[in-house]
Amino acid sequence: MPDVLEPGARVVFCGINPGRWSARAGAPFANPRNDFWRLLHAAGFTPRLFEPTEAGTLAALGIGLTNAARRTTRGAGELRKADFAGAAERLDEIARTVRPRVLAFVGKAAYNGVYEGRSELGLQERRLGDTALYVLPSTSPANAGVSWDERLRWFCALHDLVG
User: Fold this and answer.
1) Quick one: which of 33, 68, 85, 98 has the most CB atoms within 10 Å?
2) pLDDT above 90 (res 135)
3) pLDDT at 27
4) What value does the mean pLDDT take over residues 50-70?
5) β-strand 11-15 against 102-106: which pairing, if any?
6) In which domain, by residue range, is 61 found?
7) Residue 25 sits in a domain of what CATH number?
8) Is the pLDDT confidence value at 99 over 80?
9) ∠ at Cα 68 (148, 66), nearest 5°?
10) What pLDDT does residue 71 have?
11) 60 — phi, psi (to 5°)?
């Protein structure tokens, strides 16, 4: 799955890894039951609801996309520590070159996989230079225990932070 990264992005969203739907579609967050694109729009990041295949156009809106792990799996539970090898260095490089205000992890598993710890939702103490780190609830259909309203609340708080 190619990254969508342009210097000057306000926010870069970091997913956990490409799922099978995304790999087949060649587009991020492509499972029709994944709420990422709907949340992005509802929180005010995009002027309309985008399709996963339009991911490349997000750069013009100051939005970037990447993944913590590159390997495609059926679910994040299949990922191993080795799948995150080099991810911290790659994200540090993104922070230095793209210089987003915020690097937003879409799911605790993305953040915890990279930094091998436990995180809470929201703004993290760790920073990458001038880039703040923020953890959102996963938008995956496997995260059905977190309501739409709760997910939207975190996306809106991120939007307010990004400005």
Assistant:
1) 68
2) yes
3) 93
4) 95
5) parallel
6) 11-162
7) 3.40.470.10
8) yes
9) 75
10) 67
11) -65, -20
Rounded mean pLDDT, 90-119: 94
Residue appearing with tokens 């679910």: 75
pLDDT at site 163: 85
Q: Answer whether residue 3 is part of any domain.
A: no
Q: What are phi and psi of 127, to 5 degrees?
A: -130, 160
| Contact partners, residue 3, CB within 8 Å, separation at least 6 | 64, 65, 66, 67
Query: Considering the domain boundaries, does residue 5 fall inside one?
Result: no
Structure tokens belonging to residue 124: 């993290």
Per-chain mean pLDDT for the chain: 93
Q: Is residue 2 part of a domain?
A: no
In a domain, 44, yes or no: yes
| Tokens (6 digits) for 156 | 């809106």
How far apart, in whole angstroms, are the C-alpha atoms of residue 124 and residue 121?
Answer: 8
Stretch 94-119: mean pLDDT: 94
Single-letter amino acid, residue 150: E
Domain total of the chain: 1
Order of strands, edge to edge, in the sheet holding 122-128?
A: 63-67, 11-15, 102-106, 131-136, 122-128
